[in-house]
Amino acid sequence: MLTLLRCLSRWPLWLLHAVGAGLGWTGYWLSPVYRQRFDANAAQAGVPRAAARGAVAEAGRLLMELPYLWMRPASQAILPRVRWDGAALIDAAHDEGRGIVFLTPHMGCFEVTAQAYAERYGKSHGPITVLYRPARKAWLRRLVDTSRERPGLAAASATLAGVRQMMRALRRGEAVGLLPDQVPPDGMGVWAPFFGKPAYTMTLASRLSQQTGAVLLLAWGERLPRGAGYVVHLSAFDDAASAASAPQAESAAAVNRAMERLILQRPQQYLWGYHRYKTPRDAGDGAATNQGD
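The structure corresponding to this sequence follows.
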């Protein structure tokens, strides 16, 4: 498998995306469970079938671009393929000496947002630390662990130690990245509305902001057609005050509202097949059940 992934990492991005589009539709039609969840989640959000249809191919493109993003040589920069929209928000936070918490939904290419930040700002303002959940399969866990440890980019596991790692980074004025629409393990979140339906939602974003004074920014990486690259979109979090100071349930609801607004801007790039409304699994030993510690 690793040999295949290394081979794919050398393919041009346009070819990976072309193959990925077909793969996305193949998975959609071959898996009734996936297709039902995809359609149900889009309908729950009030997104018409025609508007969500493009996300089927985008899910396949997401999968096929991962070998390129994870396994290309560290010397091969991503920045030449990236345009920026709203980078002044990052510069303003840096000028104030504040850390940054990037909130990125499962939308577009979320891997590219962290890599682009690392290349542009890592040397001058320290690395960006991204939260991740270790893969269950050993070979995939080793691959993900090593691929995300790139220059200017550090990884923190969803454990108490990982949360402390992010706290220290923010207090140094560095940045961290979260996927706030990812279902956290049991004990690491609260139930809050997401497109009108209760979804188990992490509370980590508000805790990080509360305890470090970090700025909350919304970010997502738009995947451009025909392998033309990406646009990293950045915007202010309008409900930042609510998310940073309100009780956990209200903070989680504010984060979900922000994610909804982003998703509805470009529903054809959201991962509608993600199991957003599932019951969380047990956190297990060492998980960050007390996120503020």
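Strands lie at 82-85, 100-103, 128-132, 153-157, 175-178, 189-194, 197-202, 215-223, 230-236.
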